[in-house]
Fold this protein.
Amino acid sequence: MASATTLLLFCGLVCLVVAQVPTVTIAPGVEMPVVGLGSCCETYNVTDWIALGNRHIDTSPDYGSQPAVGAAIRASGIPRSEFFVTSKLNVENCSADVTAAVKQMVLEPLGLDYVDLLLLHHPGRWATDTQPRPRCFNLSDANIRGTYYTCRIETMQSFVKLQQQGFMRAFGVSNWEIRDLEQLYNVTGIIPSVNQIEFHPYWHTDDVIDYCEQHGITVEGYAPLANTEFGLLQNPALAPIAAAHNVSAAQVVLRWDMQKGAAIVIPRSQVAAHMEQNVDIFDFKLTPAEFASLDNFTQQKVYHTNCQPWC
């Protein structure tokens, strides 16, 4: 991981200090900033995020944010190549022509020619792997309704081809468990570049984190500050740690996320001051005792309270 530096941007008499976000290599020649802006659930502000000097944005057809993300990138006047854009495709939306699905559901709403990272949003329901899905086809025969299994496997094989054709620079998965990753590798030999999973002190799947690290899969944490209603940032254990480092509770949690194994985090925010804090997390580290304090939180609160429909 590259080290963080600070860049001074001068606008007239105003000096804006912008923290430079380190990057991590997720695929040959593909560097991904380790902090991005999550754009789910209407709690995001792409324009301010870009104005603060940040370039990594996470979106999805499910979030309804792709048009706003694309518009903000174009309005910025900054070359497309300076941005890192992640989007996703749901397994249910895959068809016999994955290329058409990527164009219609991702690239056209964004108004972009390519994305830097495309994720298969979830593996589907293992409990119904043998049942046909209404919009999911066996890609080998467009007339045959496919199962989650066939869509999961054959869509990832299509992602390899789409990467070679320039529709994406890298591809990965989201919400995948060890069984999903092992099945994909055993059947196809494919190792995704990234596995984006829910990741915060109230919910961390240590076995998945360890598996990804052992197999060269970069772990990306979504909801790294947990949902607001979980009250994570109000946990009294955070206050003395934040005070010791002269940072906010949110910065303490994001620092824990990264020390725990999330190479990349994508917190959501609409507030410019919070965005600045979210990227200013590289000049301090939690002590072993501080890290253990968060690692031992007994609360178990997950955004997807019932993961079975997806996992």
